[in-house]
Write a structure and sequence with these properties.
single chain; alpha/beta; 7-stranded parallel beta sheet; 7-stranded mixed beta sheet; 28 helices; 31 strands; 36% helix; globular; binds adenosine-5'-diphosphate; binds magnesium ion; hydrolase; helicase activity; EC 3.6.4.13
């Protein structure tokens, strides 16, 4: 909505001379009142002056001060979106979506103008002025338009989270901004962050020659009293429940915000609390209750604590609580509450609360649909206390109003990768001091608050790291490395990273890319270029590039989409099932998967084949409008299948764009591959995963001192010492083939291979030549002249990989 008095031809003049506010926005009174409460509003003029006068600005302010919602509006009103767009990046998809909605609402503009774009979806139009997107999306855009000519301003939000893509974007933008300046077409870079470790950006001379100005925005913050537990209880879920019950039943009114580590924990705790404190007259509508768990996370993602066997011991809550922890005087009364184990979901074991107000319990985690997330911003029903159970989404990305009590488990869930082998494992670890302080700060937004830390001050002081480690230090960087190479960064080590990855990470990435054939002598090959175009891991990109030649694209696209998705096949059913029922369901699902795998080459294609069939069958069910039911019956995660479909469409379109003459479509009725096709698919998988070969351990190969029991059914992976195993859930579990490739190794009680396919050792020399050591040509049989190719072939002996597995004689 523009100011009617403003003339188009004056725009440029005004932009150059500044500082008049000249694009008017019409806001509702309610919104305007809410905005006026934010301290950042009073500083608009000062902030805009600094932005107008500098090309790189750091804006630091506590969560909730209004950075994300207000700064884009300031820029819009100052005319920055008149000719070009304003980009705002978020590390989390949920933030990109919910913030674009919120800002659109505040400004009274439609989603055509305030839009979002994330990997699979978006609502950007030609009219878009403010574009919220994930950081990965903007990085891809740099690949095709290095100068980011569509934008007048780039705002990198939540920079303190130090996501890999945000880090890389800062590096690129530190170069793009001066280049745009030279062209007389300035681009502004605004780095927004909580007030954490700003020196990584300001004092890093590789990034910015001169320290960029730092604007600090004050947030109204009331004092928060921190209460440490005297002892650190090992079962934090039990403890968090206990503490919440105690707060709710004994302390004055005020919202409660609880931090746990994952979606599964959120759901369990929400259910538990909802049952313990029923609402009476107020009811959760279908929107507000916990959604049916269509996307349970796996056991192994839950950390040890959840897996521990249920303990039946019941404790009188009041006997087990340090009264010191609840230091508000005059409100101690013994609650008539019994405490129990959180895992126990039996109806009979409900905690009975005889008195007290109802509790309005809401879940919050990043995969929760955004209309459900929005509930935490609404007022709870009359007479109810608000209680939000959240993952660390509520730490900085979203601000929940009226929180007075924070209960902090101090835990966070991390996926750890071994830098060399790429083995991943989930585990629950202590968060950092900085995060714990962020969490505590959530209690002081509207008045003085209290934060209950379920760990001792000794643990906090001695065990917690000061800051969380930037993500780039903890992940394999293969795709990043290839992308940087393709963008002409020859020496990746010299790229202006805010935090440089370890040398060993970079070396491993380089050698894996050489193995794939994406790099040769450190230069990108044409194959490497093709690979980098796909929004999937390089190894999958290679499979796509190769299958083009074999007319197998629809299958490979489908497999790659399914393999890229976390947890498509469920291990355990959703909801509560008795132990016998559980066993039955698991058996039924295994039988279905075994049937999907088929026989011959199809069976040897293994777990990826099961995924292919699952997707095909699900598409069919979808065409008949019964997808959800089908997923429930067959142990598939509904949300994963929806995402696989999106990724299939995206990959297909991308391939069509790069290879215009190809005729691939997302055929819902993908026929199962023939036996020959299945064999070719096994070879294509090998071409992408040739560094992830494992061979069955033969008992007679074992050294004297090695424990035979430890190696029963074991495999040895090419680049690892420890034995690895086929998982119970693999369709190949029963057959113990000699050579396999796997998609991933993950560690729980043992090392397990995920996504396993059988290969023939004679294929290795052809598909993974880099890792084969071939000997001298054999004199017998004689070299052979091939009249078709005009080549001379000779037979050689050879071995494969670091373990020097002997290969059958190969012809080269
Ligand atoms: P920051 O980015 O500095 O953390 P935000 O701009 O996200 O701050 O939030 C500013 C204020 O806007 C907060 O008080 C928050 O509660 C409010 N807010 C943000 N999103 C919504 C929403 N969807 N509904 C209602 N209030 C919101
Ligand atoms: Mg924000």
């Amino acid at each position: 909505v523009r100011n009617p008095n403003f003339k188009e031809e004056d725009v440029k003049k005004v932009v150059e001379s500044k500082p008049a506010v000249f694009v008017e926005v019409y806001r509702t009174e309610e919104i305007q009142m809410a905005r006026l409460k934010l301290p950042i509003l009073a500083e608009e003029q000062q902030i805009m002056e600094i932005i107008n006068e500098n090309s790189v600005i750091i804006l630091a302010g506590e969560t909730g001060s209004g950075k994300t919602t207000q700064v884009p509006q300031f820029l819009y009103e100052a005319g920055y979106a008149l000719n070009r767009m304003i980009a705002i990046t978020e590390p989390r998809r949920v933030a990109a979506i919910s913030m674009s909605k919120r800002v659109g609402e505040e400004m009274n503009l439609s989603s055509d103008e305030v839009s979002y774009l994330i990997r699979f979806e978006g609502n950007v139009t030609e009219k878009t002025k403010l574009k919220f997107m994930t950081d990965g999306v903007l990085l891809k855009e740099i690949q095709s338009d290095f100068m980011l000519t569509k934008y007048s301003v780039v705002i990198l939000d939540e920079a303190h989270e130090r996501s890999v893509y945000t880090d890389i974007l800062i590096g690129f933008l530190s170069r793009i901004v001066p280049l745009r300046m030279k062209r007389n077409d300035p681009l502004k870079l605004i780095i927004m962050s909580a007030t954490l470790r700003l020196e990584d950006f300001t004092e890093n001379r590789r990034l910015f020659k001169n320290t960029p100005p730092v604007i600090k925005v004050e947030a109204r913050q009331y004092p928060v009293t921190i209460h440490f537990n005297k002892r650190t209880q090992p079962n934090y879920l039990r403890e968090v429940y206990r503490k919440t019950v105690k707060i709710h039943t004994t302390l004055p009114e005020g919202g409660i915000l609880i931090f746990v580590t994952g979606q599964q924990e959120v759901k369990t705790l929400v259910r538990k609390l909802q049952r313990s404190f029923p609402l009476g007259k107020a009811k959760y509508s279908s929107v507000q209750s916990v959604e049916k768990d269509s996307d349970e996370e796996k056991d192994e993602e839950l950390g040890d604590v959840l897996r521990k066997k249920k303990r039946q011991k019941k404790l009188k809550l009041v006997e087990n609580v340090d009264m010191d922890d609840f230091s508000i005087p005059g409100d101690h009364e013994d609650p008539d509450v019994e405490e129990e184990d959180l895992e126990d979901d039996d109806e009979n074991d409900e905690v009975v609360v005889k008195k007290g107000q109802p509790l309005w319990v809401l879940p919050l985690y990043s995969l929760l649909p955004s209309y459900k997330q929005a509930n935490v911003f609404k007022k709870p029903p009359e007479g109810c206390r608000l209680c939000v159970v959240s993952t660390n989404v509520a730490e900085t990305s979203l601000t929940i109003p009226d929180i007075k009590y924070v209960v902090d488990t101090g835990k966070t869930k991390v996926k750890l990768y071994d830098k060399v082998t790429g083995v991943s494992s989930y585990f629950v670890n202590w968060t950092s001091k900085a995060s714990a302080d962020q969490r505590a700060g959530r209690a002081g937004r509207t008045g003085p608050g209290h934060c209950y830390r379920l760990y001792s001050s000794a643990v906090f002081n001695d065990t917690f790291e000061k800051f969380s480690v930037p993500e780039i230090k903890e992940k394999p960087v293969d795709d990043l490395y290839l992308q940087l190479k393709c963008m002409g960064i020859d020496k990746v080590v010299n790229f202006p990273f805010p935090t440089v990855p370890d040398l060993v990470q970079l070396k491993t990435a380089e050698s894996r890319l050489e193995t794939l054939g994406a790099l040769e002598n450190s230069k990108v090959t044409p194959l490497g270029r093709a690979i980098s175009k796909f929004p999937v891991l390089p190894r999958f990109g290679k499979m796509l590039a190769l299958s083009h030649q074999q007319n197998l694209l629809p299958y490979t696209i489908c497999m790659v989409a399914a393999l890229s998705m976390q947890e498509v096949l469920l291990e355990t059913p959703i909801g509560h099932v008795d132990p016998q029922g559980l066993k039955d369901v698991r058996q039924k699902w295994r039988a279905i998967r075994r049937q999907w795998a088929g026989v011959g080459n199809s069976l040897m294609l293994g777990d990826p084949m099961v995924l292919l069939k699952a997707v095909g069958a699900a598409e069919f069910a979808n065409s008949e409008g019964r997808l959800e039911r089908f997923c429930d019956d067959n142990g598939l995660r509904h949300k994963a299948l929806v995402e696989i479909r999106k990724l299939r469409i995206q990959l297909t379109n991308e391939i069509k764009m790069n290879l215009p003459e190809t005729d691939v479509g997302v055929d819902p009725k993908l026929k199962p591959p023939t036996d020959i096709q299945a064999k070719l698919l096994r070879q294509i998988l090998l071409s992408g995963m040739g560094d992830q070969v494992a061979k069955k351990v033969m008992m007679e190969e074992l050294k004297e001192d090695e424990d035979k029991a430890k190696y029963k059914y074991a495999y040895r992976a090419n680049n690892m010492e420890e034995p690895v195993f086929l998982h119970q859930g693999s369709v190949l579990k029963g057959s113990l083939p000699e050579f396999v490739i796997y998609q991933e190794i993950y560690e729980t009680n043992k090392m397990y291979m995920r996504g396993v396919t059988v290969i023939e050792p004679e294929w290795l020399a052809k598909y993974v030549p880099h890792l084969c050591n071939l000997g001298e040509p054999l004199t017998d049989p004689e070299p052979r002249y091939d009249s078709i190719s005009g080549k001379v072939f000779c037979t050689k002996t050879g071995s494969f990989g670091t373990q020097a597995w002997p290969l059958p004689n190969v012809e080269v």
